[in-house]
Design brief:
Helix content is about 30%, strand content about 20%. With about 300 residues, the chain is an alpha/beta fold. It has helices spanning about 30-45, 65-75, 90-100, 165, 180-190, 205-215, 250-260, 270-280, and strands at about 15-20, 45-50, 85, 105-110, 140-145, 150-155, 155-160, 170-175, 195-200, 220-225, 230, 295. The chain has a domain at about 10-85 and about 230-295: 3-Layer(aba) Sandwich (Rossmann fold). The longest helix has 16 residues, at about 30-45. It has a three-stranded parallel beta sheet with strand order 1-2-3. A three-stranded antiparallel beta sheet has the order 4-5-8. Strands 6-7 form a two-stranded antiparallel sheet. It is built from eight helices and twelve strands. The chain starts with 14 loop residues before the first strand and ends with a strand. The radius of gyration is 20 Å and the shape is globular. The structure holds zinc ion. Zinc ion binds near residues 109, 111 and 126.
Amino acid sequence: MDIGRPGNDPATGIIGRFAPSPTGDLHFGSLLAALASFCDARHQRGQWLLRIDDIDEPRSVPGSADAIQRTLERYGFHWDGPVRWQSNRQERYVEALSSLVESGLIFACDCSRRSLPTGQVYPGRCRHRRVSDLPVMHHALRLSLSGTVYFDDAIQGVQRFDLAVDVGDSIVWRRDGLVSYALACAVDDADQVTHVVRGADLLEGTGVQLGIIEALGLTPPIYAHLPVAVNTDGDKLSKHSRAPAISELEPVAVLQRAWQVLGQAPLTSGSVGEFWSEAIPAWDIRRVPQQRRCVV
Ligand SMILES: [Zn+2]
């Protein structure tokens, strides 16, 4: 049986994605995003891509991208087409940056992190240093955004960001010469997918990414932000909070637990194959708790 591909039909035009960073093994928090994005796409007979967000090379852990793929396979996930690597998209990111420079929205910033107020948006100190040509060495490049973005999140409801007040001038190109996560993610999502399902810890980032997508004249995807799994101390499950890797655990039990956390109606499946053949038709995004966090 070809698990997870019940009538997957490219003609629907629906494309979801799961985009882990290769910074460690998959933990339960990432599984929630994988499961929800997979079910959301497959339930609508859409495609589902696996993208490895590996632009932040200094943070990448060797072997972790392979380990993530092996765990996803063991849990019965099937992605369409080859794995997408952000590290292969450098030219596209430079093209996007050039387009923003042409629009007069980019300025060079050499403020040190220490010189900036913590917990506040960038105060606009270097805004007068507009960039009219690339490359600019040894400076971070910031995007000056204004206006308001609205979007109707499929789980969290209508969201509104005043870009100048809530978001500020975001870094799109880092001082170390790497594209920022915000620019890479915005461009890839707009270019490649129609539906983004991910953790609500990225909700603020969606304001920035929508600002970038709009500035580039691209079409934004539909967003759905899941409650983020936190432990009983309130810390997000991550390598940092020592969340256990799910690769060592029994897949069906973990999938069932994730399914329950996402508010879905109970399933009876005893195997991975049975789980997916029940879960995909039963998936109902309206049942996902409309919360930013959930304790697991
Ligand atoms: Zn600055």
